[in-house]
Amino acid sequence: MSIIVVGIDLAKNVFAVHGVNETGRPELVKPRVSREQLLPLIASLPPCLIGMEACSGAHHWARQFQALGHTVRLMAPKFVAPYRLSGKRGKNDANDAAAICEAVTRPAMRFVPVKDEHQQSTLCLHRTRQGFVQERTAAYNRLRGLISEFGIVLPLKVERLRREILPHLEALPGWARRCANDLLAHASLLDARISEYDDAIRQISREDSRARALAALPGIGPLSASALVASLGAGHDFKNGRQVAAWLGLVPGQYSSGGKTRLGRITKAGDAYLRSLLLMGARAILASVGEKQDRFSRWVRELVARRGYWKAAVAIAAKNARLAWAALHYGDEFRLTRS
C-alpha cells in the first residue's frame, strides 16, 4: 500500500517523519532525517497529505512540499499535543511526528493558512515595527524610572514627557544627564524607524486591492488592512467569518454542562497582534461615534449602553473580523451597506 498521510516534526537540523497507508498502518518511520535529506525524501513520495506544526520555517517547507504536488496542512502545536499516542507518553521527535500524522486527519482539526513569500515579507514589516514600538516604550519607561530617582516625575504622554524633561536635564548629575540624553536620542531614532515602516506598510496597502477594500471598513486602517491580508490571504481556509473571530480569540469561552450554557471571557487565542489592531480600531470607532444617526452608530451606542464600553469594543472588533473575512472571501461581490 502507498503512503497517503505524512506527519513531520520540524526542527532546525534534524527532522522526524512518520507516514501511514490507507489502513493507518505505519509505512514510513524515520526518526532522524537531516535538513538536506528532507526535501528529496518527500519528493520521492506519491502525492499525499502532509501535516506539520505551525512553527519557525513551517510556511517555507509547506511551499516547498506544495510545489511537489502534496497537500500541506499546518496546525497549532497545542492542538496536536492531545494526539500523542497514549502508549508512548514520552516526549520525543518520533512520537511528535506520529501525533502530527494522526491529528492532521481529524475532521474537526483547525488549520493555519499557509502563507506565500509576499505575505511573510509583509508580516516581517509588522513584526519588526512592533518590536521597535515595544523598544521605544521600554526606553521611555526606563527614562522615567531613572529620573524619578532624582525627584523628577513627568507625565506618561510621550509628547509632554519630551517637552517637559528639557528644563530638568541640566539639574541632573553628570552621568544621569548623559543617560537621559542617550535614551531620548535612542527613542528619537526608533521614532524615525517606526515612521519609515509605517510609510512602507501604507504603500503596500495602497498597492493591494484587497487591503484597500478592508481599509474602507470602519475601524480598519492601512496597518490593520495589510496585516489582515497577510494573515488571512483570500480567507479560503475559513468557512465563515465567525471562524476568523474565533481564530483571533474574540469569542467568549464556554463552560457549559448539563444543558446550562455559560459563557466566560474571550478566549484570547490566536494572533495577539491582529487582535490588538482590531481592538484599537474598535476603540477608535467608540471615540468617534458621537451623535451620528446612521444605523451602525446607533447600534454602537445601544451596545455600549447595554453591555458597557469594553464588551462593546470586543463586539465591534469581532464584527470587523467577520466583515474582513467576507471582504477577502467574496472580493468584488462584497458590498458593505450602511444607512
UniProtKB/TrEMBL annotation:
Residues 6-149 form the Transposase IS110-like N-terminal domain. Residues 212-289 form the Transposase IS116/IS110/IS902 C-terminal domain. Pfam families: DEDD_Tnp_IS110, Transposase_20. Coiled coil: none annotated. InterPro entries: Transp_IS110-like_N, Transpos_IS110, Transposase_20. This is IS110 family transposase.
